[in-house]
């Protein structure tokens, strides 16, 4: 698998999303993607209790530990490369987490409009 270019939604080099826990499709801390990333794990979001509960409710449990996969489960405050479609779904439902635009991959724009990402940006001065 060859990653796409590491460019963020601001057309700048992609910055790291998080390493504790290690996130990203390639588990390198970045929201890099490639053709094989069918979930488009491209939106760097900071987990909230509300989003984690919502995600579990819609069938994508990110909070329960899965030791067999080396996954401790996410908690509020953890950064994570979310599936772009899951983020957009949560935004439509009014419970999307905040996002780091500089760490959100350009390919997120294939699914999520930039305006929606900006509406949830942690730092409103990004971009």
From TrEMBL:
<dbReference type="InterPro" id="IPR018714">
    <property type="entry name" value="DUF2237"/>
</dbReference>
<protein>
    <recommendedName>
        <fullName>DUF2237 domain-containing protein</fullName>
    </recommendedName>
</protein>
<dbReference type="Pfam" id="PF09996">
    <property type="entry name" value="DUF2237"/>
</dbReference>
């Amino acid at each position: 698998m060859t990653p796409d270019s590491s460019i963020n939604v601001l057309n700048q080099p992609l910055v790291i999303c998080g390493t504790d826990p290690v996130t990203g499709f390639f588990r390198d801390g970045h929201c890099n993607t490639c053709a094989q990333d069918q979930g488009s794990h491209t939106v760097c979001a900071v987990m909230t209790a509300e989003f984690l509960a919502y995600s579990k409710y819609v069938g994508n449990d990110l909070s329960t530990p899965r030791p067999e996969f080396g996954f401790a489960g996410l908690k509020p405050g953890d950064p994570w490369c979310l599936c772009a479609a899951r983020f957009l779904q949560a935004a439509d439902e009014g419970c999307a987490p905040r996002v780091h635009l500089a760490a959100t991959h350009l390919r997120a724009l294939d699914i999520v409009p930039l305006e929606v990402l900006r509406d949830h940006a942690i730092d409103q001065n990004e971009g």
